[in-house]
TrEMBL record:
Record-annotated Alanine racemase N-terminal domain positions: 25-248
Organism: Herbaspirillum frisingense
HAMAP family from the UniProt entry: PLP_homeostasis
Lineage top rank: taxon: Bacteria
Family annotation (InterPro entries): Ala_racemase_N, PLP-binding_barrel, PyrdxlP_homeostasis
Similarity remark: Belongs to the pyridoxal phosphate-binding protein YggS/PROSC family.
Pfam family, one: Ala_racemase_N
Entry protein name: Pyridoxal phosphate homeostasis protein
Sequence positions bearing N6-(pyridoxal phosphate)lysine: 54
Functional note: Pyridoxal 5'-phosphate (PLP)-binding protein, which is involved in PLP homeostasis.
Molecular function terms from GO: pyridoxal phosphate binding
Length: 273
């Protein structure tokens, strides 16, 4: 069992309050990414670090930017939109929406997001495509797959993914880049790792019959407590929040409700690195 996984799960991540704090945290995460790549025989440049800034106020995001952070992931569209509006002076800041999306929020995503990592509905695909065409923009998308078979998570069942991918070329503004998953929330690294392995295996299977224009080069998997295992299993994007910004004030069970359908708010809150 990987000790670093347990250290990541159990440690208290201190709040980053200065540019130097953010530099130190970013360097530490990048060092661990490099070490995981070395163990897996991979080039560290093959892994993209997506800093998840959910609940982080603008002033602290600006500190992270000054420390070198240029890509941010947000779960809630309205929160992300407010931050985007407030920080348009940071012209090279790239925003990814990584949480569940309702069709009535597609217009906002089409305005500012460079990437949407939680596509699991043709209704959402249609709404995004319509809004993107009105904006004259395209959008990179990842298809979300539920590899843990938990009712508390959004995402397609793996066996539903081929038909879903086959339908996406109808939406010309969406550029399919890869797959995303949320692993089992567990201290048992073997069970967590199995989710990453499953996503990679399905990606390899799906590559054999991809529709024209689609690519599955990217695998977005792994968060603050398990991104090293995800990299060892093929992640090309890791979504890291607390290890960069510091621990959130709310306990883990706030972000991981028992039932995704309990409320829209709690369901989106669960998807937090």
């Amino acid at each position: 069992m990987n000790d670093s996984f347990h250290q990541g799960k159990q440690q208290h991540w201190p709040q980053a309050a200065t540019v130097e704090d953010f530099r130190r945290n970013l360097d530490a995460v990048r060092d661990r990414i490099a070490a995981a790549c070395l163990r897996a025989g991979r080039d560290p440049r093959s892994v993209r670090l997506l800093a998840v800034s959910k609940t982080v106020p603008e002033e602290r995001i600006r500190l992270a930017y000054a420390a070198g952070c240029r890509e941010l992931g947000e779960n809630k569209v309205q929160e992300a939109g407010r931050k985007w509006e407030a920080m348009q002076d940071l012209v090279d800041l790239r925003w990814s929406v990584i949480g569940h999306l309702q069709t009535n929020k597609a217009r906002l995503v089409a305005r500012f997001a460079a990437e949407f990592q939680a596509l699991d509905s043709l209704r959402v695909a249609e709404a995004l495509d319509r809004r993107l065409q009105a904006e004259g923009r395209g959008l990179d998308v990842f298809v979300q797959v539920n590899t843990s078979d938990e009712a508390s998570k959004f995402g397609l069942a793996p066996q539903e993914t081929p038909a879903f991918l086959a339908a996406l070329p109808a939406f010309s503004s969406l550029r399919v880049r890869g797959l995303m998953t949320l692993a089992l929330f567990s201290a048992d690294i073997a069970r967590v790792r199995a989710c990453f392995v499953l996503l990679r295996e399905w990606r390899d299977r799906l590559r054999q019959d991809l529709p024209a224009g689609a690519s599955l080069d990217e695998l977005s998997m792994g968060m603050s407590g398990d991104y090293e295992a995800a990299i060892e299993e093929g992640a090309t994007v890791v979504r890291v929040g607390q290890a960069i910004f510091g621990a959130r004030s709310l306990p883990d069970n706030y972000y991981w409700p028992e039932h995704a359908g309990a409320s829209v708010t709690s369901a989106t809150d669960k998807e937090e690195p």
